[in-house]
Design goal:
heterodimer; A: 290 residues; mainly alpha; two-stranded antiparallel ribbon; 2% strand; B: Rossmann fold; Rossmann fold; 2 domains; 14 strands
Chain lengths: 290, 386
């Protein structure tokens, strides 16, 4: 039981990060049909910017805020400079552009920052918390709590604010949204900024646990993508559930089967979902558009 | 208009060609070209980066002091990004295009082993900076290495365990080349020291959470110590997770994390961790009559003054490799690859940062267990365990 609980805690912590990455995928996908493979780089930017802003003298909380803003600006720039000029190109082309952007950002981070691994201090100490014989670091609570807060805020934003609703409207039908007077360009810009901010926040929260480096985003993007696919691409609830499930499946796989297969678990999930139910757990059925 | 632009372009191109040809002809006469493929970026950058800096710095120093046998050294460095395929391609380029006479490089066991066949075939000496024992066992005529092997690390750790009266060890290793190789060697020599491996777990090079594996190790019956074979950020995360789970047996790391950045990354969790490492890490703490003191203090001082970053043993391996090569070229009296090879094999009594090197036809590394010191991390710094 303790063992199971320990695996579960590990899985939930990692899963919460995957969920945040998957949410980032979802927001951009909804607004633009693009699967943004640079999503992992936003997570990396969050961690790396915070590390370096604080090295350059900013106090940690301020460095974190600055990092989120920096990542959002990068998100906006990504949309303005790479996605928007290619508007009208088909989705595959746009996806390839985001892959290019992710490689570019990784390279840039190597030059601007460095190639070493970095850590941030835990927000509230390293004293593990004992829960029924299993242990949990306070930072894990921060990660899970952070993910929960993001979900609640997003839910409020998308269902209770006019601007949030206009993003939703755009995702359902861009032409109709334009016809009722929604500025689609602004919506796209906002969704890139938002998803970059969420990614950066995830990066900041998780760096005290996992450390970060210029290429920390690659694997996270793939796992987050697996989570988004599992949950059903485009569904925020699905992204969260998918993220947690992938995280838990990995931890259980590593614990009960063999740690050799840990990464394989996530990719096996992608394959199974694509074969058995291509629209995921909560996805819209029949996404073919004519 | 178009023609004149074409002409201008052609003239410029010709000038560039002539210029570069002139350079080549002018300098080739008095140059010894040595090559290096290092993992300067990528997951093994903490190896390749100090190695690169060390090689550049000392090649400049040697040239400033008049070179080797009156000839200047020319160093060609390529970055393999830790990728074995890339390393192989770059090694081909060094051999075929750059025409090097010897190679000091190969940051990881994986990249080294990918390049070994090329150097064997081209009959060019290759001094590797990687730890895996497979590099020199069985002996390959043209391949040498400077760092301690993982087998020696295992032996040193098991010696320490014996001294503390511990025998039941939980093993957790990375699935990268280094971790895999060391895991095999540790299991291999465990019997010699009466050590019983009670748990055997692994993690991937990009894993961010090892609590499941460590939970399984904690649950192993009679566990008395945990040994982590791996390098990079993995061991730092293992150390943090180890502290989180509150496992109360000693934790041993390998020489793969013997750098200050490990202490920084693992933070307070690193307290009490033991690992075998070269004397370089504790240069200042060595006794004054220690024969290694002079070499390690000099290297440490030079590196830290030039690069303003703490010294790591990996840069030291590059120093050893370069110096062994330079001595060999001096003894050979010329820069013929085969003559250099023979001279490297005769290296004896060379005092490097890793210890005293005595090579022979059967031993292309030339170090013994005394070269390792057992260190413990206390108050965020290394201390020597007596």
């Amino acid at each position: 039981m303790e063992t199971f609980l320990q695996f579960l805690f590990g899985g939930l912590t990692v899963g919460a990060v995957y969920a945040m990455v998957a949410l980032g995928f979802t927001i951009i996908y909804n607004a633009s049909d693009v699967i943004n493979f640079a999503q992992g780089e936003f997570v990396m930017l969050g961690g790396m910017c915070t590390v370096f802003f604080s090295l350059w003298g900013l106090p940690l909380p301020l460095a974190a805020v600055a990092a989120v803003i920096a990542a959002s600006l990068v998100g906006v720039a990504l949309n303005k400079l790479a996605i928007e000029p290619a508007r009208g190109a088909n989705v595959v082309t746009l996806i390839i552009i985001t892959i290019g952007a992710s490689i570019f950002l990784r390279g840039l981070a190597q030059v601007v920052f460095d190639k070493q691994f970095h850590r941030l201090p835990s927000f509230s100490g390293d004293q593990p918390i004992d829960v029924l014989g299993a242990t949990l670091t306070p930072q894990s609570l921060w990660v899970m709590g952070g993910a929960a807060v993001i979900v609640v805020v997003l839910w409020y934003f998308f269902t209770r604010t006019t601007f949030g609703k206009s993003i939703l409207a755009t995702s359902h039908n861009r032409l109709a949204a334009r016809l009722v007077g929604i500025n689609v360009e602004v919506v796209l810009l906002a969704s890139f900024a938002l998803s970059a901010a969420i990614g950066a926040l995830a990066g900041i929260l998780v760096t005290p646990i996992t450390l970060t480096s210029f290429d920390a985003g690659t694997m996270l993007a793939l796992k987050g993508f697996a989570a988004a696919i599992l949950g059903g691409m485009g569904n925020p609830l699905g992204a969260v559930v998918g993220g947690l499930l992938v995280g838990i499946a990995e931890a259980m796989g590593a614990g009960y089967l063999s740690s050799e297969y840990k990464d394989a678990v996530a990719f096996l999930i992608i394959l199974c979902v694509l074969f058995v139910m291509p629209s995921g757990l909560f996805g819209r059925r029949g996404t073919e558009r004519v | 208009m178009r023609l004149s632009r074409f002409l201008k372009g052609a003239t410029a191109a010709a000038a560039v060609v002539a210029l570069s040809a002139g350079f080549a002809a002018g300098e080739a006469a008095a140059q010894i070209k040595i090559g290096s493929v290092l993992s300067i970026t990528g997951p093994a950058s903490f190896l390749g980066d100090p190695e690169d800096k060390t090689l550049r710095m000392y090649v400049d120093k040697i040239n400033a002091a008049g070179g080797v046998n009156g000839e200047q050294l020319e160093l060609v460095v390529y970055d393999s990004e830790g990728d074995a395929n890339k390393a192989r391609t770059l090694a081909t380029r060094l051999i075929e295009d750059d025409g090097i006479v010897a190679m000091v490089g190969g940051s990881t066991t994986g990249t080294t082993m990918a390049m070994v066949p090329l150097f064997e075939e081209a009959e060019i000496p290759f001094i590797s900076l990687a730890g895996g024992i497979v590099i020199v066992e069985p002996v390959k005529p043209f391949v040498f290495k400077t760092p301690h092997t993982d087998r020696m690390a295992c032996e040193k750790i098991f010696e320490d365990l014996q001294a503390r009266g511990l025998s039941k060890v939980g093993l957790i290793s990375g699935t990268g080349g280094f971790g895999k190789s060391m895991r095999g060697q540790c299991i291999d020599v465990a019997d010699d020291y009466g050590i019983e491996i009670v748990a055997d777990e692994t993690y991937g090079p990009r894993d961010t959470d090892m609590t499941p594996q460590l939970t399984n190790i904690r649950n192993a019956e009679g566990l008395q110590a945990v040994l982590n074979a791996g390098f990079g950020q993995g061991p730092a995360i293992v150390t943090k997770n180890f502290a989180q789970l509150g496992i109360e047996v000693p934790l041993y790391q390998s020489h793969g994390v013997a750098s200050k950045s490990f202490i920084e990354l693992a933070g307070a969790a690193a307290e009490g961790v033991r690992l075998p490492a070269a004397a370089l890490l504790v240069a200042d703490q060595l006794a004054d009559d220690d024969p290694q003191k002079q070499v390690v203090v000099d290297y440490k001082t030079a590196f830290e003054a030039e690069w303003n970053q703490p010294v790591s043993t990996f840069g030291g391996h590059a120093y050893d490799g370069l110096m062994i090569l330079v001595e060999a070229i001096e003894r050979a009296g010329n820069a013929d690859p085969v003559a250099i090879r023979d001279a490297i094999e005769q290296t004896s009594g060379f005092m490097g940062t890793a210890g005293e090197v005595n090579m022979s036809a059967e031993d292309h590394m030339g170090l013994d267990l005394t070269a390792f010191r057992m260190l413990e991390i206390q108050n965020g710094d290394w201390t020597i365990v007596e």
